[in-house]
Amino acid sequence: MNTVLRRLRDLGCFPLLVVIASTATADRVPPRQTLAPHELRASVAPPAIVWPTPAMPSGAIEFESAEQRHLRAVVITKALEQPWSIAFLPDGSMLVTERPGRLRIVRHGVLDARPIQGIPTVKTGGEGGLEGLMDVVLHPRFSENRWVYFTYHKPAPDGDGATTLGRGTWTGTALTASYSAATA
Q1: Contacts of 130 (CB under 8 A, 6+ apart)
Q2: Residue 157: what pLDDT?
Q3: DSSP symbol at 90
């Protein structure tokens, strides 16, 4: 076979071989996309988690992992409802999102009973019960601009929630000048 290819090349027929090879491969049917089981159903999310919240221990939880030995987790509060994300402020306080649409703050290990003001209206529920207030992060230059970013489901005219990126300016007690952008 190599002799035949060399002879055709020497005769200047190599471009013809490329066209023939291209045509032969173009007739092949491309492989079909494989789908995960959840993609074969009409729903896009797993069913909502409907079991009650388990009881939290009253003391520290000590455990080991493959990466670190002698770990200790301490329960700071039991008063959050579906906490989703945490952002640590420079002073050590924690901003915590709750999926039902509240932004909370933990200062000096104590949860403030009042939610942070300035979060826009959040659409909760949805398919699988997964819509709500989600992530919270500080801008990389937070110490200069005081910007806090958050993602949430913005109520849409069709009744669904549109995944949205929001930003507000942290005053130390609230978010001001919040706006939403980048709706997906």
Answers
A1: 45, 48, 99
A2: 85
A3: T
Q: Domain extents for the chain?
A: 78-181
Q: Find the mean pLDDT for residues 70-96.
A: 94
Burial of residue 103 (CB within 10 Å: 0-12, 13-18, 19+) is: buried
Task: Produce one character per residue of 37-55: b if its CB has 16 or more CB atoms within 10 Å, e if not.
Answer: eeeeeeeeeeeeeeeeeee
pLDDT at res. 129: 73
Quote the mean pLDDT of the chain. 81
Domain 78-181 fold is: Thrombin, subunit H (2.40.10)
Residue 83 near residue 102 (C-beta atoms within 8 A): no
Tokens matching residue 108: 């000096």
The token pair that represents 174 in the structure block = 């609230």
With a cut of 90, say whether residue 23 has pLDDT above it. no
Closest CA to 75 of 62, 64, 89: 62
Place of tokens 């005219």: 157
- 142: how many CB neighbours lie within 10 A of its CB? 16
What pLDDT band is residue 130 in, cutting at 50, 70 and 90? Answer: confident
pLDDT of res. 10: 64
Could you tell me the pTM of the whole model? 0.68
How far apart, in Å, are the Cα atoms of 184 and each of 115, 144, 165, 169, 181? 26, 29, 9, 22, 9
